[in-house]
Each structure stands twice: as C-alpha cells, then as structure tokens.
Amino acid sequence: MTAQPGKNPYRPGAATPPLHLAGREPQLARFPKLLAGAPEIPANMRLTGLRGVGKSVLLKEFETIARNEGWAVVRHQVEPRHNSEEAISLLLGQSIEHAKTRMSRYRRLRSQLLEAVEVGRRLLTVSYEDINFSMGGAGEVERDLSRNLYDAVETALDTGHEGFALLLDEAQVIRDDTTRDGEYPLSMLVAAVNALQEAGLPLALVMCGLPTLRANLQRARTYSERMFRGEVIGELTGNPGAARDAFVEPLTTTSVTADDGLIARVLDEVEGYPFFIQLWGAELWEAARDAGVDRFTTSLLDSIETDIYARLDEEFYAGRVDTLTPSEQDLLMSTGRCAYPPLRSVDIRGRSDKSEGNVNVLMGRLTEQGVLYRIQKGVYEYTAPKFHQYLERRLAALD
Questions:
Q1: Minimal CA–CA distance to 267: which of 245, 243, 292, 283?
Q2: Are the C-beta atoms of 93 and 100 separated by less than 8 Å?
Q3: Which of 23, 84, 136, 156 sits CB 3.0–4.6 Å from 242 for a disulfide?
Q4: Domains and CATH numbers, the chain
Q5: What confidence tens digit (pLDDT) does each residue in 235-269 have?
C-alpha cells in the first residue's frame, strides 16, 4: 500500500490500516495454516492486547486472508448491548443471514465453475439433527445459534467455499454473569462452536479483544484454553526492527526523510505502540509541510510536541474518563497518584477517601467498562498504554 503523492502517509485512527503493517508477520503467517488444518484441528484464535496495538487492523487482515483462502467470512464488532444470550444469538443470526445472501450471489456468479467442484466438498456429512441430539440440555436460544452456524457452514460449502469463519472484535464485552439470575452468552457461543467443530464442520472462530478476554473464556468453559490458539498482540520493538519500520517505511514513497536522532526519540517516546507511531508521524508530516521542509528533525518535533500530546489526550484518552460516573472518575483520578505499574488496591485505598468496600465496587465497575483489567486479586493495569502518564498530566492541570 502506498500513499497518494503529497498526502499524509500516516494513518492514526481506530482500526485504520497503516501503509506498512510492521511486526505482525508471525500472526499473518500462522493464520492461513490454522485455516488449512480445519476441520480436523479446530481453527480458533484468540487475539488479545491493549488499546492501540493494532488488534482490529490485524483482524481485518485475517478477514482478507480467509477470503483469499476460499472461506466465507463474517466479521463483526461486538458492543455491550450484545452481552446477553438472546442479543448475541440475534446479532450473529442476522449477520449469518446477510452472509448467506452474499454466498448465494457468489454461487450464481461462479455457477459454471462450481459444476466442476467435487460433490463431496459441497455437502456436510453430518446432519443438524445429529448435532442437536448431541447438545443434550442446551436451551432454545443456544440451539438457534447452533442452527444458524450450521446453516452458515452448509451454505458456504454448497457455494464452493472451504468453510465459514466468524471474526468477532471487542469480544471481551461478551462475558458470563455468574449471579443467580445471570445469563451466559459467552458459554453459549463457545459451546455451540465447539459442538459443531467436534462434529467435523469447517467452522473457524477468531475472538479479538482486551486482555480480559482470556479470563472470560477460561471462566466460561475450562476447555477454552485448548480450544483457542492464543496470540498476545503487544508493542513493536527494535531500532532497527519493527518499530523503526512502522515509522520509517511510510516515508519511502515520499520525498520526506527523517533524522536518526528524531527516529530514536519518537520510538522512545511512543514505546512502540502502533497507534502512537502513526499519530507522531502524522503530526510531524503536517508540521513539515507547514514549515516547507522535507526532513523530520528533533527541532521540528520540539515545535509541535505540546500539540501532539493535546491531540492524544483529547482523542485517545479523555473519552475513557468523561463517560464515567463522578464516583468512577474520582477513583480513577486517584489511581493517577499511585505507583505504577501495576495498580494495587491497597495503594488506591490509601489515595482515596472512599471506604474499602466502595473502592472494590468501583474498581470492579472500571474493569467492566474496559478502563482497567485485573491481573490477579487486588492488582490491576490500564487497558490503554501510557494512561497513567495521561492521568498525571490531567491531575497536574487541576493543581
């Protein structure tokens, strides 16, 4: 991918693919192998990482790979409103119906070619009734979901595809409620997919989300650790290496260059996080254009660094605080005065005037809303990189 002449070659944005996707070669190489192993080996993958590391970008790449490998694909971003058994089943059912319509059009366009496809590749060797019987005490909503997934695979094979892949982004928002009257949407989804895969259906599931996704899956079904290939998507490293490539490669098709000193400083400042690399690059590009220069230098960065942080704080961080309740905001700001990493409940209680019980409740709510994630009991980290420094800047502005 190359930028149009004169256009900014950096792409800071939510799930916006960069011109050069650096450092994700291992995952991009493993995914087609995962698909090729299906249905004998379940083609499931779990992508986890902090905000801004490029998980959603990678998921989009997986969608392209799956289509190129002949799979029918549905990719969907899950929202908190989908966190119930009925809601997630309805969402996936509607998405699958749209996918089946697209597959039918695909079949008509390839009708002559499909005549040459082996009949065995177009038929499932197990009926839904067989799978339904094996599911025992499953509820009606789970059976509806299983039926929809079965139909998706059946339609995919009937239209000449290798199988059906379901790619879910922000999947950490789907979690079981273990209270007495709670629902179990994640358990339902995992169990339905597992039942179909055990029956030999070429069905792939990729779940992408914050680090809490792993624990959610483990609590939902203990066998999920064996069901998913786990991929932790972290920051980029290396100068030379992937971090440098992510910053420098977008410039290779332009007339603009960057000093080594500037590159080293940017990489040190952004700590290898892909979104930050794109943001710093985009701001430097605009500053160079405004100044009429064709070189990124440390002096150029000096002139705009305050503006970069202002944009970062407003676009990336502020919304994570402003959408919270006053009590949640108050406790979160208290964490900015604690030692980090990690955050410890005992330290937070020492910085807050709230009771121990109130602190625990609020920390749980901050975790549920994806601001924090729990490493172990009483120990937390932020889901957004460099968020502690943001809170420190915000506190300094209030003092």
A1: 243
A2: no
A3: 23
A4: 25-232 (3.40.50.300), 242-319 (1.10.8), 323-398 (1.10.10.10)
A5: 999 999 999 999 999 999 999 999 999 999 999 99
